[in-house]
Amino acid sequence: MRVRLLFVVSLVVGTLLSACDEGGGSGGGGNMSPGGHWVGITSEGEDVLGAIMFALVTETGSIHFRIGGRYGVGVLSVSNGNDVSGNFQFVTNPSGPSFPDGTTQSDCTVSGTVRERITMSITGDCTTTAGLQFQLTVPNLTYGPFIYERASSLATIAGMYDIGRAVMDIAADGTIFAQEAFTNCVINGQVNIIDPAFNFYDFQISYSSCTGPDADLNGATFVGIGYLLEITNPSPPDFSTVLGVTAIGEVNGVMVPRSIEGYRL
């Protein structure tokens, strides 16, 4: 069985609501950039009203986001200075809550506006695979410079990460390797720099040798973006670099999300 997956690295940190939300604006004429780490609360959406949205958007408009137990991936573009448009897929885990019509996947057309490095609003007109139509609205996404406005490099991301089921090794050249003890899954891949000025990374990861319930992952290829977050715990004092993994994959024709979180050893 072949499984196709889109791999997104993000961090599930509900407390980071961007205390420093006053980023810069557009540097001059032309279209504003949608790039950044964004956090907002939905004002409309099928049973996700009032849920927190965490979104990663690259300078070129690739978007990966999470709302509760649902996930999305797509592309945004900006025209007429600050008008946002695009498309994304919005999916939920088949083992968790589905959309009201019982489906787990919808396709959405996006509209909205952006103030570069300050705020963004988006509305998705969505249709599930069974034809149910609904809107997903996030009127005030707040920009978080603390995460996005940090340089990226292979030297920065290289290291060993405890991801719970395995230790992931990211080598100095960006090569990824891990093996899960209980499933025997072997993970191989590569990290590349998207833009050295910003703290997002391009990831490619593949699964092989999986046994048991994860055998469907054999042959899967993950492609996506990611970032690092450095956290200080005041009691006891500790400094940790944290990495999170969120994936959206197609298994037997159904898009399925997965999440992994880890920290640097």
Summary?
With 265 residues, the protein is mainly beta.
Which CATH class of the largest domain applies here?
Mainly Beta
Number of domains: 2
Overall radius of gyration: 18 Å
- Contiguous helical run count: 2
Which secondary structure elements does this structure contain, and how are they paired or packed?
Blueprint: E1 4-8, E2 36-41, E3 52-57, E4 62-67, E5 70-79, E6 83-92, E7 105-115, E8 119-128, E9 133-143, H1 145-148, H2 154-157, E10 159-162, E11 167-170, E12 175-179, E13 186-193, E14 201-208, E15 221-226, E16 229-234, E17 237-251, E18 254-264
Antiparallel strand pairs: 1-17, 2-3, 2-9, 3-4, 4-5, 5-6, 6-7, 7-8, 8-9, 10-11, 10-18, 11-12, 12-13, 13-14, 14-15, 16-17, 17-18
Describe this structure in words.
Mean pLDDT is 83; it is low at 1-28. The protein has two helices and 18 strands. Strands 1, 10, 11, 12, 13, 14, 15, 16, 17 and 18 form a ten-stranded antiparallel beta sheet that branches. It folds into two domains: 4-10 and 150-264, Lipocalin (Beta Barrel), CATH 2.40.128; 36-143, Beta Barrel (Lipocalin). Strand 8 and strand 9 form a beta hairpin. The protein has helices at 145-148, 154-157; strands spanning 4-8, 36-41, 52-57, 62-67, 70-79, 83-92, 105-115, 119-128, 133-143, 159-162, 167-170, 175-179, 186-193, 201-208, 221-226, 229-234, 237-251, 254-264. The radius of gyration is 18 Å and the shape is globular. With 265 residues, it is mainly beta. The relative contact order is 0.21. Helices cover 3% and strands 54% of the residues.
